[in-house]
Amino acid sequence: MKLIDSVILSAGVALVIMGIYEVMVSGLLHAYIFLMPAIVLFLWFVYRKRRSA
């Protein structure tokens, strides 16, 4: 795994964790700003993995 792939995956996981916390504290609408970028990062990660394989 390349460094950029590790960074993308780590950032996605961090955003998911922050999003889960926001869901528990404030609700789903406030967690949107964390969960949507996390989904984009995960899709970008999968795209990069499939393109390199």
Name the features:
53 residues; mainly alpha; elongated
Indicate the low-confidence ranges by residue numbers.
none
Number of separate helices: 2
How much helicity do the residues have? over 70%
Kindly name the structural category.
mainly alpha
Broad shape: elongated
Order of helices and strands: HH
For the sheet with most strands, the description reads: none
**Count of DSSP strands:** 0
Return the domain count: 1
How large is the radius of gyration? 12 Å
Strand content: under 5%
Mean of residue pLDDT? 96
Distance between the termini: 11 Å
Give a quick summary of the entry.
The protein is mainly α. The protein is built from two helices and no strands. Helix 1 runs antiparallel to helix 2 (about 30-50).
Question: What is the secondary structure topology, with strand pairs?
Answer:
Blueprint: H1 3-25, H2 28-52
Helix pairs in contact: 1-2
